[in-house]
Amino acid sequence: MESKICLIRHGITEGNKNRLYYGHADIPLAAEGIDELKRLAESGLYPDGVNAEFYTTGLRRTEQTLELIYGRQKHESLEKLKELNFGSFEMKSHAELKDLEEYRIWKSDKLGNLPPPNGESLQAFYKRVIRGFDDLKERNALKAFSMRHKDDEALSIAVCHGGTISAILESIYPKVKDNFYKWIPDPGHGYILFMEDGKVADTEKF
């Protein structure tokens, strides 16, 4: 059975503009992000949401992004798809943190095993996100099965975060070298995953 999953990164926030570490901090979209999402929606960038199933991570910036693109839609929250929890480093910049010993130690960890104070490690983040993606794939497969006798194709639309999307794409294409930052889409953009029998057969960036 064929279906699609659409992963959309939320719009621009003050955290993006000021290059802050923020993941679980529940901040809203910046005015610039709202305007940009309206423009992108009007351009026809996004897939038609008729009969789609919608998901966010429950954070305000994902809730706002979903509503700006598709209007008020019934949806569920998939909290496992939240961005990395930066703990005590949340809402702080490199300039604010660079003289802290615990920050320097964390930044020097190339394997991603060390968490920031009161946060989670990159490896723990990867594992959490993949569990969340497995849940999303299962929901999409069930939707596809329920629609197997219809002409419409099952579509799941998840508004989440840049790091989350990158972790998912990295898991799909593990042989691509140095690909974590490669896969992060611009705010308001993302990927369509073409599914066959519950597995990703192809991807398309938008």
UniProtKB/TrEMBL annotation:
- Specify the signal sequence span: none
One GO cellular component assignment for this chain's record is:
cytoplasm
Pfam families this protein is in?
His_Phos_1 (PF00300)
| Residues that hold substrate according to the record | 9-16, 61
Q: Name one GO molecular function term.
A: phosphatase activity
Active site: residue positions: 10 (tele-phosphohistidine intermediate), 83 (proton donor/acceptor)
The record, for PANTHER family, names: ADENOSYLCOBALAMIN_ALPHA-RIBAZOLE PHOSPHATASE, BROAD-SPECIFICITY PHOSPHATASE YOR283W-RELATED
The protein's name is: Histidine phosphatase family protein
Instruction: Look up and give the organism this protein is from.
Output: Lentihominibacter hominis
